[in-house]
Amino acid sequence: MKRKDLFKEGFKSVFQFAFEKTDDLSQAIKEVWEDEKKATDSPEEKKFPKKRVPKEKIEKRKKTKLFRTLSLPPGATNHFFSLCTGCNECIFSCPYTVLFPVTSQETRKSFPFFDPNAKACHLCEDWPCIQACPEKALETYDVLQTKPKFGKAKSLHEHCINHKTGEKTCDVCFTACPIEKTVQFKGNMPVFASSTCTGCGLCVESCPSFPKAIRVDTLKNINID
Fold first, then answer.
1. CA 22 to CA 42: how far, in whole Å?
2. Residues 6 or more apart from 111 whose CB is under 8 A from it?
3. Looking at the DSSP assignment, which residues form a beta bridge with residue 138?
4. What is the pLDDT of residues 54-84, one digit of tens each?
5. How many Cβ atoms sit within 10 Å of the Cβ of residue 215?
6. Which contiguous run of DSSP H or E holds residue 131?
7. CB-CB contact of 120 with 208 (8 Å)
8. Where are the annotated segments for Disordered (predicted)?
């Protein structure tokens, strides 16, 4: 046999083998598909149908996740979103540049927010952000007779310096908190009183640990749209 014919026969054998294996693979895939289809159509499978999450619920879940760490400015009323015009006067008046605008995807209107885990509200005595609001979307606390409620601080013990040293080495969160008797110590670890904690984030901001040993869990009733 000539060398040329030898190569030709060799390639022919290789391709024939490949085609046979491809046919075998196709047949195997077909059999698996048929078995899967039978299992799906079986009475037992129909007893427990797969639940499909409606599109509206998926969109709502995404929104909740997006705003779960944000808080409204101090003094935000129940009608805040209908009264606020997005003028940003409260943002400009904040001496600590805590507030920032967030735009609604549906209305294309912006509203002021802040993240207490990133930058704390300093609970100013004269509330310049409230005073600057021309639409009364932010109500003064002289009228409300209370402190703002942004959420509640929570201690992350595994990151706390006191947990690492085994003794009360640090009390910076206690010193930074502007509300009396809100931060107390249980052993060496700080705990935060639910009744008085405003969730302002000053304890988070002052915490020297990295990662931070304190987190503010913000209120979950914010719906920008």
1. 30
2. 72, 80, 81, 84, 86, 101, 102, 104, 224
3. 76
4. 554 444 444 445 556 799 999 999 899 999 9
5. 21
6. helix 128-132
7. no
8. 34-56
